Amino acid sequence: MSDTILIFYGSYRSDRQGIRLADYLVEAFRARGASPELIDAKALDLPMLDRMYKEYAPGEAPPALEALAGKIKAADAFVFVAGEYNWSVQPGLKNLTDHFLEEWFWRPAAIASYSAGRFAGARAGLAWHGILSEMGMIVVSSTLAVGGIGKALSPDAEPIGDGGASLARAFPRFADDLAWWTEAARVQRAAKAPPY
């Protein structure tokens, strides 16, 4: 069975470089036999959170919100490509995630952080760990952290330089960890209904 993995990316900047990491992950997971899909917050352009998906009457949510809710509920796992803004999370990605809650429950999530600087988005990754846990996901222990994003991946999302080589070496363990938890969660959901 091919794992359905949603890869979330949240930068709204016009010259965004983190999209390279998102594109790399889509292709790397596809090469492993998964079924990844990029969910780009900028392309969706959801409004600032006013009403969560669950707060709409059935059939009355905006079409983009309804479609994304269905994708989230059908997914086996999630990857959050987390850029760092001022030691914290990107507002576009946080706004997207906050539109949902129960839709995320009982599935694993992994964090791939990045930044232009040497800290590789690690502070944003740490913040996301708590956020995703609070939203009902199991956050796997393996992470990716890419510093100097513009020098680690080419515009075509190919690993380059030392940073790209490091990413390529780290990806298999990251993907294996996510795959293990994805299988475990799928088996458990099939065997026993969640407690709430």
Q: How much strand content do the residues show? A: 15-25%
Q: Multimeric state of these chains?
A: single chain
Low-confidence stretches: none
Shape: globular
The helix/strand order is EHEHHEEHEHEHH
Secondary structure: helix percent: 40-55%
Structural class assignment? alpha/beta
Radius of gyration: 16 Å
Task: Give the tally of β-strands.
Answer: 6
Tell me about the biggest sheet?
Answer: 6 strands, mixed
Tally of helical runs? 7
Distance between the termini: 26 Å
Mean pLDDT: 96
Care to describe what's here?
The protein is of the alpha/beta class. 43% of the residues lie in helices and 20% in strands. It has helices at 19-31, 41-44, 63-74, 91-98, 122-134, 149-152, 161-191, and strands at residues 4-9, 35-40, 77-85, 88-89, 108-114, 138-146. Strands 1, 2, 3, 4, 5 and 6 form a six-stranded mixed sheet that branches.
Give a brief outline of the structure.
With 196 residues, the chain is of the alpha/beta class. It has helices at 19-31, 41-44, 63-74, 91-98, 122-134, 149-152, 161-191, and strands spanning 4-9, 35-40, 77-85, 88-89, 108-114, 138-146.
Q: SSE layout and pairings?
A:
Blueprint: E1 4-9, H1 19-31, E2 35-40, H2 41-44, H3 63-74, E3 77-85, E4 88-89, H4 91-98, E5 108-114, H5 122-134, E6 138-146, H6 149-152, H7 161-191
